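Comment thread on ticket #2218

A.B. wrote:
> Attaching the input chain for the structure job we discussed in standup.
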Amino acid sequence: MKVIGLAISALLFVPQVSQAKNIYGEVLLTDVEPKTQKVWHREGNKSPHYPVALAQAKLQGCTVLSFDISEEGYTENVEVVSSIPNKHLGKYTKKEIKGWRWQQLDPLQSAMSEKRTLRFDYCLGLESAEQSLAQCQQQTQLNCG
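C.D. wrote:
> Ran it. Output below, let me know if you need it in another format.
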């Protein structure tokens, strides 16, 4: 009986595994403000990760955040300016960038705070990472709120 139960369980499980698809996530950052004469750049400069929970929910969209970079290079006063299609992208992104550290572009210049506004585009593709990137590049041309 146990063998039959295991065999049935295995047969029920196999179709779910074989139907699993890869999902390729891409996050693109665009500077909204300032466009020129930046004082700071982000340490590490790696692209943010696509949140697994949002990818599993197939949630795509964009969010715009405004924040300050302190004289010490910390991210402060983070505000969600817009978040499409819902607030989840904005909430996740706000939490993500609060931990970012910044370095001065010109270490010889005296440290000063800076106001920044960034746009984050979250895109998913089922075919390839390249398809997801191409979709995201098109999405950056659309209005985000």
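A.B. wrote:
> Thanks. Noting for the ticket: Residues 1-20 have pLDDT under 50 and may be disordered.
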